Amino acid sequence: MEQTETFNLEQKRELIIEAIKEKKGHQIVSIDLSEVENSICECFIICHGESVTQVGAISDSIERKMKEEAHTRPHHVEGLRNSQWVLLDFFDILVHVFQEEYRSFYRLEELWADGKVTRVTETS
């Protein structure tokens, strides 16, 4: 039987953020929802890309890094067809990759502002 390392929430969060940074995702935000009553997961990670192509590349990067390093795949992926808003569901972490205009329209950070919001510093 193959032994695989179990990644905790923080390790998975860091891998996802790293994957987003590799594809130059913008305004990365992590929202800790563990203390929020009736939340649908432990953590949201939100970012945006500048084009359909970049949103797709960010989503692919997240899937690849999580598969290769954490040995896990998303339970469900939505939105890849038009890449305006891609949702990757890792059960405890939901990742939202938007095109900028859709992110501004839906304003998830405001909807879930009762969670602990952490803005990730972008690197050039």
How would you sum up this structure in a few lines?
With 124 residues, the chain is an alpha+beta fold. 35% of the residues lie in helices and 27% in strands.
Explain what you see:
The protein has 124 residues and is α+β, with helices and mostly antiparallel strands. It has one domain (9-113): Beta Polymerase, domain 2, CATH 3.30.460. Helix content is 35%, strand content 27%. It contains 4 helices and 6 strands. The chain has helices at residues 9-22, 52-69, 100-106, 108-111; strands at residues 26-32, 43-49, 76-78, 85-89, 93-99, 116-119. A 6-stranded mixed β-sheet has the order 3-4-5-2-1-6. α1 (9-22) crosses α2. The model has no long low-confidence stretch (mean pLDDT 93).
Q: What are the main properties of this structure?
A:
124 residues; alpha+beta; Beta Polymerase, domain 2; 35% helix
Main β-sheet description: 6 strands, mixed
> What would CATH call the homologous superfamily?
Beta Polymerase, domain 2
CATH class: Alpha Beta
Number of domains: 1
Envelope shape = globular
Sheet with the most strands: spatial strand order: 3-4-5-2-1-6
Mean pLDDT, all residues: 93
Helix-strand topology string:
HEEHEEEHHE
Rg, rounded, reads 14 Å
Termini, distance in Å?
Answer: 43 Å
Number of helices: 4
Quick one: how many beta strands?
6
Q: CATH architecture, please?
A: 2-Layer Sandwich
Quaternary organisation: single chain
Strand content: 25-35%
Poorly predicted regions: none
Could you please say which CATH topology applies here?
A: Beta Polymerase, domain 2
Helix-and-strand structural type: alpha+beta
Helix fraction bin: 25-40%
